[in-house]
Amino acid sequence: MTVRTYESDMQHQWYVGELHGLPTHGRRVSFTVTFRASQDDAWKWSNEQFSTSDGHIIYQTPDLPSENLGHYVDGLPTYLDIQKQSSDTPGTLVWSVDSPVQAASGTTSGHSRNKLGLPTDFSRWFALVRLWSPWLAPRQGKGEFRVDKEAILATFERNDGTHLAILAVSGVDDVLTTLHHDGSGNVVIDSRNDAEQDGVARLVAAVANDLESAVAAVIYYARRIVLKYEASSGELAAELKALHDGVKPEWLENWFDGLAYCTWNGLGQDLTERKIFDALDSLKRNDINITSLIIDDNWQSLNNGGDQQFSKGWMEFEATKTGFPRGLQATVRDIRAKYRNIKHVAVWHALLGYWGGIAPEGKIAQEYKTTWVKRKNGVSGGKMLVVAQEDNARLYNDFYQFLNSAGVDSVKTDAQFFLDELYDPKDRRSLTRTYQDVWSINQLRYFSGKAISCMSQTPQIMFHSQLPPNKPRILLRNSDDFFPDVPASHPWHIFCNAHNAIFTQHLNILPDWDMFQTGHSYGLYHAAARCVSGGPIYITDKPGHHDVGLIRQMTGNTPRGDSVIFRPHTVGKTTAVYNSYDDPVLLKVSTYVGMARTGVSVLGIFNCTQNVLSELISLNQFPGAEEGAYVVRSHTTGQLTNPSTADSQASFIHLELPVQGWEILSAFPVRTFELGRKHPGKGLTTISVANLGLLGKMTGAAAIVNYSSYIERSSGRLRIWTSLKALGTYGIYISDLPKRSLEDDFMALIFGRPIPLDCISINDICAEILEIDTERAWKETGANAGWSNEVAVEVVIR
Fold first, then answer.
1. CA atoms within a 13 Å half-sphere pointing along the CA-CB vector of 369
2. Of 602, 632, 667, which residue is a domain's last?
3. Is 628 exposed, middle or buried (0-12, 13-18, 19+ CB in 10 A)?
4. 99 or 29: which leads in pLDDT
5. Considering only CA atoms, which of 93, 61, 125, 120 is closest in space to residue 214?
6. pLDDT at 5
7. How far apart are CA 26 and CA 158, in angstroms?
8. In the record, which residues are listed under signal peptide (predicted)?
9. Closest listed residue to residue 587, CA positions, set 602, 597, 576, 600
């Protein structure tokens, strides 16, 4: 199959060969390719013609070369406490590394900068750095380790095929730890201690034959460290457990799985209830059924009307009378009454109140004990008034009780990084953990976990609040914002999220890749990324600026009339962490639907460069598709490959993407049956089938809830039963479909009722795909009067 997103007359050929022999030890071998266009042409070196570097083959041995950390990191100082630990990840070695850090003194935190050592025998490195206080971002390099910012995670691809991962652990004993370098390639441990006694900076190191296992090993052991530390807070743990046990899972499913609308980019900062109603009317006129509404920044009552955000303070719980003269409760009540499809209404607020904290002259400052805090120099520098430790629990209880009474059932809590912007160690000790804890408790108590944690990718928050599995998963903003007016930001946004997920996939959260606009020039690009992210989808369209066709590719309607998205079961993440943003390769984001080896492997593929890129995609690049036969389908073209296996030389797909190009490829497992056992005169017929889910949806495989296929003993017929999340065009690959008669060889049912023949057809692009219009069939048969939120379809092949 050749998959393209634009016309091209170029002919493509590829060569496949075998390398015989295997080195006795793991090693890395360089190679290049020579080519010529015809026999009369001279041979040319590809690396010279196309300015590419040599290729590399890494031969791996099954056993790890050493159990000594010193084999992987040279020059380990004697003052480090290094202990080999048991690992929760098979095939990995794990070490804890403790480094001393001095105590805080007065208004100055304690700091240390200690060398870890020099990673040995590696070719490439990857790191997740603190882009600035609230956000993480990826960095890559070759040769010497040189990150431009503080890192929390660093990994190294070694020449023997192993991977070394080093994780800096924070949020324990008031110590913040990151990784840096000394200019000579050594990894350096940077630590800040806010406690009044000497502390310990903690690292975890792991080695494995694959990067995913090494990263999992360091994070799982870090979880052990954090949980052991958290166990000393028995009261908090008990309250969280009680709240966790009281959360109803179906509420979280609705929150995660419906299309949401956010007011931020679409309606701007001068927010009013009139603008919200105009936006919702526009969505309704275009038959766009959102299930969640996020009322973003600038609904609150604030002081300093015309000043910048960072100088404005929060006055009172009630909404601003300028934009919401009838009050928040009246606005939310009318939203729910007029737009019945909206099940959830969330409001935005900053963790410490607003960007400028608490207004000294406001009701909140009068009713709760406050304290002035100093912030670091920079974007948020200067003094700020906040509610003190003694009263922040009462503040959150009262505030969320007010929101709950107003009909609000979810929150987006932003600017959480302000906890890391505090300068004085006393403020950091008293406020950092307490604000996290009171927020966690109250969002569970009043909103049952329906919360978005935003600008909170700071080490103390990630390790203290997001790593422990002691509460339901919440949504976590996974990268910096969507910036509609900055063209260069859009490919980087996708690249950044895909790489951040290497770490955040292991947190007790669901990564949220942020809102986007469907009518934007990058709307399709962002939509494809959100669909493969495994997280929520919410749009921020300006009223009247909607791409309805695009929204239809992301969503579907259930028989009850609910709108759902098709969210894969695993978090979308990059398949090649060591490829940098500037490398001329396609970004591949993998995710999965269903159970391992029986589900559907999905690759979202994006051109993040400013040049046309062409690649061969093999089946073994689809995680989970290493064994068995699969057919691969392109979303944009509808083309389907023949069944193949990962070790087949014919399993390559040529993909060519222009600038801003994208594609979603899905690998569907194929099952093979023999028909005709009950009809000896006809003989046996071999037939292969694959369940394709809903066609026309970017991740239509995620519409499959349950699926079974089997030969019926009594009749010898093949029965294929599927439960789908939504109505739409259901597709099944049938290997011998062109030889069959729709009238004679098939029977299809929806909710147990026969489907009219005019609802069944053969796909225009691929003659091996049977299509069933379940929406039309549902209406024509009168099956299901809205009592089910799933669609039951059965196909019988004679």
1. 7
2. 667
3. middle
4. 99
5. 93
6. 38
7. 10
8. none
9. 576
Q: Do residues 219 and 263 both lie within one domain?
A: no
Question: Rounded distance, CA 640 to CA 733, Å?
Answer: 9
Residues 6 or more apart from 578 whose CB is under 8 A from it?
124, 125, 126, 140, 157
Asked whether the beta carbons of 271 and 324 are under 8 A apart, the reply is no
Q: Name the 3-class secondary structure at 123.
A: strand
Residues 782, 784, 789, 794, Cα dihedral to 10° = -80
pLDDT tens per residue, range 190-208: 999 999 999 999 999 999 9
d(C-alpha 279, C-alpha 583), whole Å: 41
Write the pLDDT tens digit of every residue in 652-673.
899 999 999 999 999 999 999 9
Which residues are paired to 373 by β-bridges?
A: 384
Look up the domain containing 246 and give its range: 234-300+323-342+398-565
Q: What is the DSSP letter of 717?
A: -
529 neighbors 513 (Cβ within 8 angstroms): yes
In tens, the pLDDT along 437-464 reads 999 999 999 999 999 999 999 999 999 9
Asked if residues 794 and 719 have their Cβ atoms less than 8 Å apart, the reply is: yes
Residue pair 629/643 in contact by the 8 Å Cβ criterion: yes
The verdict on residue 352 lying in a domain is no
Q: How many CB atoms lie within 10 A of CB 19?
A: 9
Residues with Cβ < 8 Å from 705, sequence gap 6 or more? 723, 724, 725, 790
Helix (H, G, I), strand (E, B) or coil at 336: helix
Predicted pLDDT of residue 3: 43
Whether 226 and 238 share a structural domain: no
Same domain, 419 and 272: yes
DSSP per-residue letters across 221-253: HHHHHHHHHHTT-HHHHHHHHHHHHH--HHHHH
Map residue 460 onto helix, strand or coil.
helix
92/219 Cα distance (integer angstroms): 12
**By CB neighbour count within 10 A (0-12 exposed, 13-18 middle, 19+ buried), where does 780 fall?**
middle
Residue 407 reports pLDDT greater than 70: yes
